[in-house]
Specification:
CATH topology of the largest domain: Rossmann fold
Helix content: 25-40%
Subunit structure: Homodimer.
GO molecular function: shikimate 3-dehydrogenase (NADP+) activity
Keywords: Amino-acid biosynthesis, Aromatic amino acid biosynthesis, NADP, Oxidoreductase
EC number: 1.1.1.25
Number of strands: 12
CATH class of the largest domain: Alpha Beta
Family: Belongs to the shikimate dehydrogenase family.
Low-confidence stretches: none
Bound molecules: 2'-monophosphoadenosine-5'-diphosphate
Mean pLDDT: 98
Distance between the termini: 30 Å
């Protein structure tokens, strides 16, 4: 019996339970994946309960991804660099934290839009927590350059500086949008601009993106943001955020079970839950 769950505040809206229940069912595994409404002051007790109730693993979401790290026995190198954990594996009471957001995103981008990222010029919009996970995972793909564009230029520069030994990473403010986007093979929006209910908003002027580029948005509500719609009109290949959500879950499922995650069934379950 495999006991799994997700801790967050709020948690009622989470699509993780429906997605992981579908994965368990697809593989014929006995178990349950439960939503756990954990407030910040209850996080330490909730992590103790992972051990005492013999959860095999949990996902951790907003607002606990950073705070949870101090309660774990071990944190994976990638998660430590990113500074956030979204997946915990319980090996007989020993808890290890991982971050599957970035690697899930990159797997989705490669599977669905851009199979080879090596040598590519990548523009990342935003320099917050989501950008950290994605930039870190992109470094392993050996792109030619990663340019981080952010409303607050200092944050983009700080992030670029932090990993400057690992890859050619540069930070820019909004005034450099035109120049950075014109040179990019792949453009990735990590900001929340364009998310429901503000579906008309775009994080950058889409006219700056060169025709034929790959344009990707982490947002999956709506499934196709205004940025992606505009980019499609410019003959760009577009990639929405649903695949990141599915693949961060798929990696977590693989860490817990040692099995290949049934990605298609997981994606279908999430899509059906929107209908
Ligand atoms: P997340 O974990 O989702 O990345 P975050 O750490 O709060 O959330 O980061 C949000 C990112 O989106 C930041 O880069 C933020 O820009 P600032 O650093 O200038 O705050 C960016 N962002 C959010 N709302 C934005 C808006 N309306 N216009 C432009 N950028 C925005």
């Amino acid at each position: 019996w495999l006991l799994l769950g997700v801790m967050g505040d709020p948690i009622a809206h989470s699509k993780s339970p429906v997605m992981h229940q579908a994965a368990l069912a697809e593989l014929g595994l006995q178990g349950a994946y439960v939503p756990l409404h954990i407030r910040p002051k209850g996080l330490a007790d909730a992590i103790s309960a992972v051990r005492s109730l013999h959860f095999r693993g949990v996902n951790v979401t907003i607002p606990h991804k950073v705070e949870v790290m101090k309660y774990l026995d071990e944190v994976d190198e990638g998660a430590a660099q990113i500074g956030a954990v979204n997946t915990i594996v319980n090996d007989n009471g020993r808890l290890k934290g991982y971050n599957t957001d970035g690697i899930g995103y990159v797997r989705s981008l490669k599977d669905e839009a851009c199979p080879d990222l090596s040598g590519k010029r990548i523009a990342v919009l935003g320099a917050g927590g989501a950008a950290r996970a994605i930039v870190y995972a992109l470094i392993a793909e050996q792109p030619a350059v990663i340019s981080i564009l952010n409303r607050t230029e200092a944050k983009a520069r700080e992030l670029a500086e932090e990993w400057s030994k690992l890859a050619d990473i540069r930070g820019f403010g909004e005034e450099a949008s035109c120049e950075v986007l014109a040179a990019a093979d792949v453009v990735i929006n990590t900001t929340s601009v364009g998310m429901h209910p503000n579906i008309g908003d775009v994080p950058v002027n889409p006219d700056f993106i060169r025709e034929g580029a790959v344009v990707s948005d982490l947002i999956y509500n709506p499934l196709k943001t205004s940025l992606l719609r505009e980019s499609e009109r410019r003959q760009c290949t577009v990639h929405g955020g649903l695949g990141m959500f599915v693949n961060q879950g798929a990696y977590a499922f693989e860490f817990w079970t040692g099995l290949d995650a049934p990605v298609t069934a997981m994606r279908e379950a999430v899509l059906n839950s929107f209908r």
